[in-house]
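notes to self, project folder thing:

trying the whole complex as one job this time. last attempt i did each chain seperately and stitching them together was a nightmare. two parts in total, labels are on each line so i dont mix them up again. if this works i'll redo the older ones the same way
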Amino acid sequence: MAENKQVIFKGYIDRSPTETDMELRINKVELKVPKGSGAFLVKNLYLSCDPYMRGRMRDFHGSYLPPFVPGQALEGFGVSKVVDSDNPNFKPDDLVSGITGWEEYSLIQKPLQLRKILQHDIPLSYYLGLLGMPGFTAYAGFYEVCSPKKGEYVFVSAASGAVGQLVGQFAKLLGCYVVGSAGSSQKVDLLKNKLRFDEAFNYKEESDLDAALKRYFPQGIDIYFDNVGGDMLDAALVNMRIHGRIAVCGMVSLDSLSKPKGIFNLSNLIMKRIRMQGFLQSDYLHLYPQFLEYIVSNYKQGKIVYIEDMNEGLESAPAALAGLFSGKNVGKKVVRIVHE
Amino acid sequence: MAENKQVIFKGYIDRSPTETDMELRINKVELKVPKGSGAFLVKNLYLSCDPYMRGRMRDFHGSYLPPFVPGQALEGFGVSKVVDSDNPNFKPDDLVSGITGWEEYSLIQKPLQLRKILQHDIPLSYYLGLLGMPGFTAYAGFYEVCSPKKGEYVFVSAASGAVGQLVGQFAKLLGCYVVGSAGSSQKVDLLKNKLRFDEAFNYKEESDLDAALKRYFPQGIDIYFDNVGGDMLDAALVNMRIHGRIAVCGMVSLDSLSKPKGIFNLSNLIMKRIRMQGFLQSDYLHLYPQFLEYIVSNYKQGKIVYIEDMNEGLESAPAALAGLFSGKNVGKKVVRIVHE
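result (full assembly):
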C-alpha cells in the first residue's frame, strides 16, 4: 500500500471552474494489480489541462463525455509509467499516454484509453500537446474540416493555445496568410516571433473586433479556426469571404451553458455561403498514424515548434486548470507531477 | 408607345417590407426595341414574390445582389412573353423566365438573366416555383448541402412555403422521415394530407419549440433544412443528432439585419459535430439540367405536387410581397399580371 494524492471534483458547476471547485485528498492505493482483472497500475508523470474538461464539470449527461463524479478524482489526458500490470499488452516501466486520473497512481481498468509511447526522442510532456489530443485536434480540424488551400487567408483565435499555435503553423506550412488573436502582448509577441504567424493582435486591446479583423483582413477571411465562440465569432462572421469555412473547435469564451451569449451575425452564412462545422478529433482517429508521421518529421526538421506552460506538482493542478479560462496559460498547460 | 404600370421601390428599409414601401406608377414604354442594342422587350405574365427580395430593400451593398434603386421598379423572377427583340436568341412570342421588372413591360438589357421556356405542358407560373429558383434551391440545398441518406430524420421549417414543400417531398422520395413546421392549421393540414409529410405542427401553437421538436423527434434530427433562423434554429440545434447537418437557406424570422435576434445554442455544433452550411442556388447552376429532368419526370408521374398561392393583378403585388413576412401566403406566392 502507498499514499495516493488526488485532485477531487467537489461538485457540479455551470460556469468556468475556480481552484476551489477541486480539493486535494490523500488516499491509499494498492501497488499490486489484482490477478485476472486485465487492469494495470500507472504512476502519473504529467497531466494535461484542457478547456473541454469544463464540460465534464456540468451536470449534463447529453454530451460526448460523461460528467466527472463528485467526490472522486478528476480525469484527463496524462503521460504515465506502468508500475504493475495484469494486462499482457502493458509491462512495468512502459510509458503510456491517454486518459488517466488526476492523482499520483491510477488503476487503469479501460486499457483502450491509453496507448504506448514508442517515440522516445521527443519530450514526454509533448504527448499531451504536440503529439496528443490538442495536436491531433489542430491537424484534423485544419486539414479535414477547413479544406485549406495555399494562399488563403486564415484567422485563428486563442492562437497561442495548445491547439491554435499548431493550426497557425500548419497554415503557414501550407502557404496561407495567418493572423492570430490572443489575450496579452506576451502571447502576441510569441505568435509573431516564435510561431511564425504573419500578424497577431491582443483582442483585449481592441474595442471593436470587427474593425480589428478588417484591419488585418482587408480582403476578408477564408478560414476561421474558432477556439473561443462569442463576440469573436460574431465579428469573424461579418468578415468571412464567399465560400469561407469556420471550424468550430471550442467556445472557451462561453462561460455558462445555461446562459450562453448570443451570436447575431449568422445571416452571413447564407450571403457568403459559409460552411461552419463543429468537430471532435475522436472522429478522425484513423488519421492518427499519418498525423504522427507528419508532426514528428516537421518537428525534427525544426519546421514546427511547440510552446508549453508547465506547472510543478499535483497541488498546482486546480489553479492550472482554472487559469485556462482566464487565459493565464502561455501555450499548452501541463502539470508535472513527478520528475523521473 | 404604350402605358406601363410599375411597382416602384420607394426607399431603403431595415425591417420586413409593408405595402406602403412600394407604390404604383403609370409610366410610358416604347414597344419597339432600339436597333443595335441587343436587347429585347417582354410583356410580363407572372411575377414571383420571394423572401430574398427583402434583402434588396436594404441600404447594404455587400450582399450577393445589389439593392433596389429607390424611385425605380422592383425586380424579381418572372415569366414573360417576348414582344419585340433585337437579340437573335429571342423572338417575338417566345416565353421566357428569369429576372424582369415589376411592371407590365420590361426592356431586357441583360439577356443572360432569362432563359427560354421549352417545356410547354407544365403551368407557366411553375417556372417561378417548382421549376424556378425556389425549386432549384430546394434541390441543391437538399441533395448537395444536406448529404441526405435513406431513413434519416428530416425537419423542415416554413415547410409549406415555396422551397420547404419541395424539400419535404424530396426527402420522402428518398425514404426519410419528414416533419414540417408552419404557421397555421391550414398549412399543417396541407403538409400532412397533400404534401405527404409524416408529421407537421403549427409553431405558433407551441409555447416551447424545444419540447415540440422532442415530441416529433424523440431520437433527434439528422437534417434540419432551415428557412427561418431565430428561435426555431436555436431549438433545432439542441435536438440535432451526432453528425447532423443544417442547411441554412433563409432566415425569414430575422426582421432586421441591424438588430438581429441572437442564436444561443451553437455549442451543440461541437458536441454533436454538426455541419451548418449556408448556400445559394446560384452556386449550383451546373446541376440545373439534371434538376429539370428530375422534377419534370416526378411531377408527370404524380410523385411531386406543388402548391401555389396566386394573386391577380400588378396592383396586388406590394401586398403579396409584404404578406410573405407574416406568413399570409399558403404555398408559393405568385402574382398574375395578365391572362394570356
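what i see at first glance: Chain A touches chain B at residues 55, 62-64, 229, 233, 242-243, 248-251, 254, 257, 260-280, 283 (CB under 8 Å).
need to look closer tmrw
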